[in-house]
Amino acid sequence: MTIAIATEWVKVPAPDLEIDAYVAAPSEPGHYPAVVVIQEIFGVNSHIRSVAERLARQGFVAIAPAIYQRTAPGIELNYTVEDMAIGSRHKELTTASQLLSDIEAVITYLRSRPDTNAESVGTIGFCFGGHVVYLAATLPAVQATASFYGAGIATFTPGGGAATLSRTAEIGGTVYAFYGTTDPLIPLEEIDQVEAALTTASDRHRVFRYAAGHGFFCDQRPDYVPAAAADAWEKVLELYRSTL
Q1: Which among 45, 80, 155, 191 is least surrounded, fewest beta carbons within 10 Å?
Q2: Cα–Cα distance, 154 to 120 (Å, whole number)
Q3: 90 catalytic per annotation
């Protein structure tokens, strides 16, 4: 059974800027667990907003911050080759320190809301956002991470430096990672590396593999696989309900 929701755009104050963010929350007054939704390279587009709304209908306050606020405020792209090139350029301009700072600011904002119980929060991210939430899992407040086809976790970190995978031991919460086994952007050996690092770090973490390509969760992309998306969604809800 789903519940009525309300949506709005808000401004989240951060140390060096204000971040535009899309919020979806249950309409009924209450104190709800919170989830931060991190975009693909395409901005806070209709797919990302729909994920936030789906979470809200399940009883979460969901917020999707614009992680390209510094370089492309208001950007919203489609799944074309041309838009992919634009989104990739802005991805290259992000840094791990800025991303972590922005997500910390979003968590602080969530804790200021009267409708959240945000001592601990969850995250969910897709594509580049899947990488970003793996990085953000190192933040103490993040207790549940759903990382969908996050490319490059084993090979780089935004802005340069040691690969994000090297920080796995810093993760305090639980990570569920979702991959397609025919994803051309994430070789199987990199999935194996992520799984090995997570397994070494904690027996709570889980990696799920589907016979699918990149973007299998997004119903706006040609790689959408309904059965895999539905199964992954149930696992995401299981994760949040058991940890938040």
Answers
A1: 80
A2: 26
A3: no
